[in-house]
Specification:
The protein is of the alpha+beta class. Helices cover 26% and strands 37% of the residues. The chain has helices at residues 2-17, 30-36, 110-120, 151-161, and strands at 40-45, 54-61, 67-75, 80-86, 89-93, 98-105, 125-132, 138-145, 165-170. β7 (125-132) and β8 form a beta hairpin.
Length: 174
Amino acid sequence: AEDGIRDKLVTGVQTCALPIFEDDVTYVNAPKLAEERGMVATVKNDPHCEQFRSSIQLKVGMSGGQNFVVEGTLVGIRKVEKIVSIDGFGLDVSPGKHMIFLRYLDKPGVIGSMGSALGKANVNIAGMQVSRREIGGMALMALTVDDAVSESILEEVKQTTGADLARTVNLDQK
């Protein structure tokens, strides 16, 4: 049973990370796509950890030499999937059907700009979390939205907020 839970979590984390490379990532094809791209998933178990007992880290190397790490866990007796960290930015986000991730320099007005840009495009925000390492440093925004966001809307959001990275993730199970 524990292996099944671990496999589900690995697949969930892979499914969230792979859209950087692929457009059509599903829970079904994520493990094969991750293997083809050399992604490595590690399982950490710590019965004394105050936050969660086990987690999965997926380390991804991009073609430009950049690397990033996505960490996920299962929470509670229902084993709810959670993204708990991306590149050291602490999060507590359940993967949603349509998500946006934005990395930017922390400054006043970015959250409002994001809301205005998405509202203007008639995109409803279902949930949002912002994480930063320090005041005025880099921040990561994770949003769950009701519908898929087009590349043109994403580019508008990136320009409006001054983000250096903006990505959409669509977890439609096909």
